[in-house]
């Protein structure tokens, strides 16, 4: 089965950790399309924007038109379903009430992608405050059931879920949902995942957030949390984990979320190289100059591969 490697999001146009002038060329021709450019270099992406607002059909149709037919999307579920505190603060509403009508809006928005067979997974990402318990298990059971028919991955961050791993695995297996494996700094309350847990899902889902423990909880800007570059040595066992999951017959999605200053696409390229993938299209000179580990792995615009 294929191992798909991409990044969490493709558009980081501002801030100290922007991608412009690094992954994307500093000088852009008129009509430059970030997603089309990205899709020339990777075969999948995890959509960030569906977490912050409900997707709409016109937008998802445009994403489809701007990428090859073989390009696959994973979509993060809208925050109303997984992050009630964040939803209430961001949308300035008093009550949190999830309805099937809300789910119908989300379904309609991603339907162009799902109907075309280009939805790799739907990610249900929960915060560390979402702890295992009777109510949270019941809610997760309801939500996963309401989303039946999609390939599901569930990201859980609090260690209460791994402390009762048998019950968590059984719950996810009942919905054929993958238990997302995450690489991140580990603290006392962090979920423990020494290996990728096998459920009855047809997919395996891996997310690499970086290991910037010093700025994980204390930072000037939220993007500082993701300022981390994996070494080739750190990526090697992750590549092996992905190979093992693929050997079991599951489609594997691996997404890099260490997006600060285009470290995610740099590490994604290295990981693809370790997996034996062909890396198409040129990269800007600024990218290979900033990340020398890419030299000999990717082509630099205007230069042969070995320079």
What summary fits the major beta sheet? 5 strands, parallel
- Count of beta strands: 11
- The helical percent reads 25-40%
Which whole number gives the mean pLDDT?
A: 93
Secondary-structure element pattern, one letter each = EHEHHEHHEHEHHEEEHEHEHE
List unreliable stretches of 5+ residues: none
Radius of gyration, in angstroms, nearest whole number: 19 Å
The largest beta-sheet arranges its strands as 2-3-4-5-6
What amount of the residues lies in strands? Answer: 5-15%
Total of DSSP H or I helical runs spanning 4+ residues: 11
Secondary-structure-derived class? alpha/beta
End-to-end Cα distance: 33 Å
The gross shape turns out to be: globular
Tell me briefly what this model is.
By secondary structure, the chain is of the alpha/beta class. Helices cover 34% and strands 15% of the residues.
Protein model, in words:
This protein has 307 residues and is α/β, with parallel strands linked by helices. It has helices at residues 34-39, 49-52, 57-65, 84-91, 100-115, 134-146, 159-163, 165-174, 232-247, 263-274, 285-290; strands at residues 3-7, 44-47, 72-76, 119-125, 152-155, 178-179, 181-183, 203-208, 251-256, 282-283, 299-300. Strands 2-3-4-5-6 form a five-stranded parallel β-sheet. A four-stranded parallel β-sheet has the order 1-9-8-7, covered by helices on one side. A two-stranded parallel ribbon has the order 10-11. α3 runs parallel beside α5 (100-115) and α9 packs across α10. The longest helix is centred in the middle third of the chain and has 16 residues, at 100-115.
